[in-house]
Design goal:
The complex is a heterodimer of chains A (about 270) and B (about 300). Chain A is mainly alpha-helical and about 270 residues long. Helix content of chain A is about 75%, strand content about 0%. Chain B has about 300 residues and is mostly helical.
Chain lengths: ~270, ~300
């Protein structure tokens, strides 16, 4: 077995500084007092740890509302995405039917229509349906993702047909086959889809920007984006809120690192 | 006997309906929230519909499109986007491939490095903007403190259009390289070790190994990363919001922001903004078509 050279380690560590340094600096800055934040000789680490910015974050009445909204949206949209994308993936992986090629094409073509391209008419659709300015507008439309369907289909193709056929012969209903055989067998793919969906929804900015108008419905991202004062006196609060907003993703990442790698490879492969 | 035949027929019928039932929720959402809006957008692009008069408008033919090609601000935003793509895509592409090659070396604590480089991928674009704004902005920011300590003159950083423009490139590269690194990493790990062993016997050096084994083996991954990054950079907007807000003086205003502002905050000209979206769609479609076309060539 070859060994890595010292140069490899030097590069690897420089890259750690580049990728991790900025994040640590923001977190450190969030722990600085107001006077230290705007000192003319900033230091990387706080001279004295202060919780003022975090206290200020929480004391702004709506902070918990924003966090709550973000959790409601991310969790319910992810649950919905897992159910409907697995259903579609199953239909496309294990059934032959009239129009299956056309449906596949339709799903493929939706990749070409990212939200950024249709955001203007989406607004009128949401208004017409009475979904504008409701969390439902962030939960339902975003749950159907072509990437999710492909991920599930690709995985479900590998489940042997025999298991499904023998369940049918035993008289199991199609829904029962789906819930008792397909879903348990698709667990790894479901986990991957779930964490990616959670990340997409948690970090999303464009959907809330278009669909939400009243601050009570803001998600955390929209709230942070709308916090005023680029260099204003409350920059410490913005830093603290940003730091808090990263925590859920950090936890999810530390637990599901393997699925992130797998998901990146798969979703990338399917574009 | 007759009964059994009937139930078999019923079973056959049921089997035909079932896949459609499984597909219904997804297709419903796609139709209402993607396909329908796309059609409405196309229709709007030929009208003078305004955000505050969504129900009374008239068809104006190609006027919006004609106007587009005379709109210096839109053309500037589009050109700015193209420049951003041309500059950031190769940087991300090369760094992702290089870092992937580093990460597959037999390093100790490999998992730690991989996780660290991937971490910025999971930070929202809004927060990425805040991070870099905080580091780069202001005379007392970390960046200015650092360069003045090294003896350089203080920089006007984000107030300088040129600096602001490059800061967007930096933020995009920082936050997205880890994602594509993983795709390259998977491709590198699937190259059979025997190829390298054979080339060792032939006395190949490192450059030759890269040129004749690694690079050709990454063909499919290269094409895919290239197209994915390009499409992504074309849609740049959220990362700009807290980093430069599109400024100074539109130096970092890209197409999506211009479309959004036209429809929702400056002139409320929904029809006109829809025409811009169609131009953006045209670019994305060409790229997606290229993706399918090239990927077919890549996996043969």
């Amino acid at each position: 077995m070859k060994k890595a050279s010292i140069y490899h380690y030097i590069f690897a560590i420089l890259l750690v500084v580049f990728f991790l340094g900025p994040v640590i600096y923001i977190i450190m800055s969030a722990f600085k007092s107001q006077s230290e934040l705007f000192s003319s000789t900033p230091t990387f680490f706080p001279k004295a740890i202060s919780f003022d910015n975090f206290a200020d974050s929480f004391s702004r009445g709506s902070f918990l509302t924003y966090i709550g909204n973000s959790f409601i949206v991310a969790i319910s949209s992810t649950a919905l995405a897992v159910v409907i994308n697995t259903m579609s993936g199953y239909a496309l992986a294990k059934f032959r039917f009239k129009g299956d090629k056309i449906i596949m094409m339709v799903i493929l073509s939706t990749i070409m229509l990212p939200l950024e391209v249709i955001m203007v008419p989406i607004f009128s659709v949401l208004k017409t349906l009475g979904m504008y300015n409701s969390l439902l507008a962030l939960i339902i439309p975003a749950a159907a993702t072509p990437t999710g369907i492909f991920l599930m289909r690709q995985y479900l193709v590998t489940i042997p047909d025999d298991i499904i056929q023998s369940a049918r012969i035993d008289g199991a209903s199609e829904w029962k086959i789906f819930t008792r055989i397909i879903v348990p067998n698709a667990k790894p793919a479901i986990a991957t889809l779930a964490i990616f969906s959670f990340m997409w929804r948690w970090n999303d900015y464009i959907w809330p920007l278009i669909a939400i108008s009243s601050p009570r419905k803001y998600t955390l991202q929209l709230a942070i984006a709308n916090m005023s004062g680029q260099y204003g006196s409350n920059y410490g609060t913005i830093l603290a809120t940003s730091a808090i907003s990263m925590v859920p993703m950090l936890v999810v990442f530390l637990i599901f690192q393997k699925q992130f790698v797998q998901g990146t490879v798969n979703s990338g492969m399917k574009g | 006997m007759k009964n059994e035949k009937q139930s078999f027929k019923a079973y056959k019928m049921k089997q035909k309906v079932i896949p459609y039932l499984f597909l219904t929720p997804n297709l419903l959402i796609f139709s209402i929230f993607i396909i329908l809006p796309a059609l409405i957008g196309l229709y709007y692009s030929f009208t003078d519909v305004n955000l505050f008069h969504m129900n009374e408008f008239s068809l104006i033919g190609f006027q919006n499109y004609v106007r587009l090609f005379k709109d210096a601000e839109f053309l500037a935003a589009l050109w700015n986007t193209v420049k951003l793509v041309v500059v950031s895509v190769p940087i991300i592409f090369v760094s992702a491939m290089a870092i992937a090659m580093l990460i597959v070396q037999p390093l100790r604590a490999k998992g730690f490095y991989r996780a660290t480089y991937y971490w910025p991928v999971m930070i929202s674009a809004i927060v990425v903007g805040i991070i870099w704004n905080w580091i780069l902005g202001g005379s007392f920011g970390l960046f200015n403190t650092f360069i003045t300590k090294l003896g350089f003159a203080e920089s006007d950083t984000l107030i300088n259009p040129n600096f602001a423009w490059w800061s967007i490139v930096l933020a995009i590269v920082w936050s997205r390289t880890g994602y594509y690194m993983i795709i390259f990493m998977a491709a590198l790990l699937s190259i059979p070790e025997s190829l390298y062993e054979a080339s060792d016997m032939d006395g190949a050096n490192k450059v030759q190994k890269f040129r004749f084994i690694t690079y050709p083996s990454l063909r499919a991954a290269r094409l895919m990363v290239f197209i994915l990054v390009t499409m992504e950079v074309f849609k740049t907007y959220p990362i700009v919001v807290k980093l430069t807000a599109g400024g100074p003086s539109n130096a970092t205003t890209y197409t999506v922001q211009y479309i959004y502002e036209t429809a929702f905050s400056t002139t409320y000209d929904v029809g006109y903004a829809s025409a811009m979206s169609m131009i953006l769609l045209l670019f994305v479609t060409i790229l997606t078509a290229a993706n399918f076309f090239l990927n077919k060539g890549g996996t043969d």
